[in-house]
Amino acid sequence: MNKARSLTELVLIGNYPPDNQFSMRLYVELLADAMMKQGLRVTVYTPRVYVGRWARSTNKGLGKWLGYVDKYVLFPLKLRELARSASPGTVFQICDHSNAMYANPLRGRPVIVTCHDLLAVRGALGDPDAYCAASRAGRVLQHWILKNLAEIPFAACVSDFTRSDLLRLTKRRSGLSTRTILSPANCHFQSLTTAQATEILRLEGISINQPYILHVGSNLPRKNRVLLFRVLFELREKWPDLIAVFVGSDFSESERAVLERTSSESRVRLLGRVSVRALNALYCGAHAMIFPSFAEGFGWPVLEAQFSGCPVLSGNRTSLPEVLGAGGLLFECDDEIGMASALLELKENAGLREELISRGHQNTLRFRLEPWVQAYLNLYKDCLADNSNGHAA
Fold this sequence. Notes:
- The protein is α/β, with parallel strands linked by helices and 393 residues long.
- The chain is 44% helix and 14% strand.
- Strand 8, helix 8 and strand 9 form a beta-alpha-beta unit.
- The longest helix is centred in the first third of the chain and has 25 residues, at 61-85.
């Protein structure tokens, strides 16, 4: 039996920059910084933009296919070169499961993959509860991803829910090679005083002079942002000056249709993407953060809100009960009446509001940086030992 190698270097493999996967970039940056502080040599590699530079957008049409050339033809050549030159104590980490195919050019080297959610894979397999419809090309891509996920020997999942999906869909054995490593907050969020939050928003050019509920996320159907429109409609008489603030993508056509039907246009504010410090201030100033998503692999906004001292009303599906813990209120994802009633109770019952904030802070202790770092260090060492003993895929 070979002697286990010592961990000396970590190679993190990130996403194609034009894909604008902001949360994944933050995850890689957080991991790189944390591991460098542990004394590891850390290098981050992402696919270079070569032929994709000729496209206006790599998210659709011809541009998408040009991006595929950069990601799936040219970048694997770079990875093969890295695999040949890597020192014996190097571990390669594919930081987004959607890039699981990058394990092929690294074959024979210690490789782990971080799995954030398998909703797109489930959608490609025809699961309506994933709320991720797939095109014909998308189905081919997701099947390719799933095949490679099944072959990578070590996987870290950001929640037990995602781990369960991975084990079920790949038919992996439920051993220690597939672990749940709960994500910490991907940025620094903290409780701020009203004066501090107001000043930050002023400096960021954001002025909100009414009580508001907050949503953070995209316009994907599974995010269920329209529920906030319906909540406002329910409260049109009992709380007429309450507004909803959205941080994220522009409204889709279907969202605008619901907005018009509920006559809520004047009570909605869309901010788009904001800075981390502005987002922290928005959480701190909100009456509550509502996150009624139908499907999540983790649900970072829930955790960010709790770190910021913001009460959370969440949907009760997939990973959200797991992440929210006892630090918020769970509802059916179509229960606008229940959420509206809870918002009024929070307004009238200061004790309940303080209790939720306290329970939220207590819940964040499960997501501290230190145990996350140690769990990954343990996984790296086990992956190296397994590879040294000749068990690499």
